[in-house]
Structures are given as structure tokens and as C-alpha cells.
């Protein structure tokens, strides 16, 4: 009798113990981003902790949707979008890791820049938004969707630069955008950048 009780007790402890081990393993297995954690640290240097960039020339990635981010990374890799900083960075990263990184940033919470546009900038920016029918694609609150980037709260310096890049055919991964920005002056592009960066619902 005594030995049976002891055996039961041992089995009980063994099962509890192995149960803990299994759940610990599951916890580790649940980190889908384990293979890119180290590489993500490099991204954080410019794009901020978890992609919430606080530096105006580095776009906020946190909370931008997965598919848009993935397309950009693939485009930097293929040369369709060209940038002296980003192109060499992604050149050495496999597509499956780029995908994981895009997923990672897509899962973070969007934290917009703290930019306040002046009343003049707002009214000049609104005119551009109406003329270019931006809300038809970027949606009323400029939050975008899986294929279309969110613009509200993005850094104005970055927005300004990338729209000028579209205009001057430096960024060629969306031809309708090249045509659209070709119709605006640099001042108008600057005004709409400020309007969008400071945009609050
Ligand atoms: C040395 C600074 C630096 C580092 C490191 C860096 N980036 Fe960038 N990233 C930039 C700059 C600058 C741009 C804007 C490029 C442009 O103007 O076209 C950018 C743009 C991007 C964009 C496009 C965003 C958009 O809204 O279109 C993505 C996506 C991106 N980076 C992802 C990454 C990932 C992932 C990593 C890490 C593997 C990374 N970046 C590392 C500076 C950096
Ligand atoms: C027909 C749909 C459409 C319209 C209209 C449109 N956009 Fe876009 N926009 C897009 C798509 C799609 C992209 C992403 C292109 C890519 O994959 O690089 C984009 C990209 C952008 C980007 C780059 C954002 C980033 O993070 O790099 C900016 C800025 C932008 N649009 C601003 C505007 C503004 C301002 C207007 C109005 C004047 C406008 N767009 C009108 C579809 C549209």
C-alpha cells in the first residue's frame, strides 16, 4: 500500500513538473518572431523602439499594416523603391524574414508624431487633399488599410520627402502616385505633409 501511494505521489509530481516544462516550451514556441528578434534591434536604432520612430526623417512603422510594410521591404529589395539607407539593409535579409518583420511592426500600436499644424497649413493642406481625392484611397481618417499606408500622424519630414520622391520619380513603386504628385507644387506638398502629420480625427 505504502509503495503504491508513494508511486502515485511521484507520478503526480512528475506530471505537474512535466506540465510546467511543456507550457514553458509552448511559451517559447509562441514567439513567432524569435528568428528576427536580433535583426529587429537594428531597425529600432532608426525607426525607434518597436518601430515608434521619434526621429522625423525615419518613418513610423509601428501599427502600419503588415501587407503595406511587406510590399515596401520587397520593393526596396527588388530596386523598385530605391533608398541609399534601406536598400543595402534589406539586400542581406531573406524574404521570409522581411515578412516576419513586417508582421511584427504591423502588430504594434500606432503612436503618431506630436505635430501641430498651423491654421494656414491646415487650410492649404485641405485644398490639396480635396484636389487629389486622397480620402478615396487613404480613407477619411487617413488610417489606410492593408494595401494603403496610414498617413495621419506620420512624421511630416518623412511625408514631405517621400511625396517629393514620388513627384521627382525617385520612388517608383506606385506609378499613379508619380502622376498625382506631379500635379502639385513643392509648397502644396509641404502643406499637405504638415496637415496629415498633425491630423486628428
Ligand atoms: C540607418 C537608419 C535605418 C535603419 C537601421 C532601418 N531603416 Fe527603414 N527606413 C529608414 C529611412 C531613412 C527610410 C525612408 C526611406 C525613403 O525615404 O524612401 C526607411 C523606410 C522604411 C520603410 C518604409 C516605410 C513606409 O512608410 O513606406 C520600411 C518598411 C522600413 N524602413 C523597414 C525597416 C526595417 C524592417 C529595418 C530593419 C531591418 C529598417 N527599416 C532599418 C532608415 C532606416
Ligand atoms: C488611387 C488611390 C490613391 C489616392 C487617390 C491617393 N493615394 Fe497615396 N497611396 C496609395 C497607395 C496604394 C500607396 C502605396 C504605394 C506603395 O505601395 O508604395 C500610397 C502611398 C502614399 C504615401 C507614402 C506613405 C509612406 O508611408 O511612405 C503618401 C505620403 C501618400 N500616398 C499621400 C497621398 C496624398 C496626400 C494623396 C492625395 C493628394 C494621395 N496619397 C492619394 C493610394 C492612393
Number of domains: 2
* CATH fold assignment of the largest domain: Cytochrome Bc1 Complex, Chain D, domain 2
CATH superfamily of the largest domain: Cytochrome c-like domain
Number of strands: 0
Taking the sheet with the most strands, its summary is: none
Radius of gyration: 24 Å
Q: Approximately what portion of the residues adopt beta-strand conformation?
A: under 5%
Order of helices and strands: HHHHHHHHHH
CATH architecture of the largest domain: Orthogonal Bundle
Class by SSE composition:
mainly alpha
| Share in helix | 55-70%
Low-pLDDT segments, ≥5 res: 8-22
Explain this structure.
By secondary structure, this protein is an all-alpha fold. It has two domains: 34-107, Orthogonal Bundle (Cytochrome Bc1 Complex, Chain D, domain 2), CATH 1.10.760.10; 119-197, Cytochrome Bc1 Complex, Chain D, domain 2 (Orthogonal Bundle). It contains ten helices and no strands. The protein has helices at residues 2-29, 37-47, 66-78, 86-91, 95-107, 119-132, 135-138, 156-167, 175-181, 186-197. It is globular. It starts with a helix and ends with a helix. Residues 8-22 have low confidence and may be disordered. It binds heme C (2 copies). One heme C binds next to helix 6, helix 7, helix 8 and helix 9.
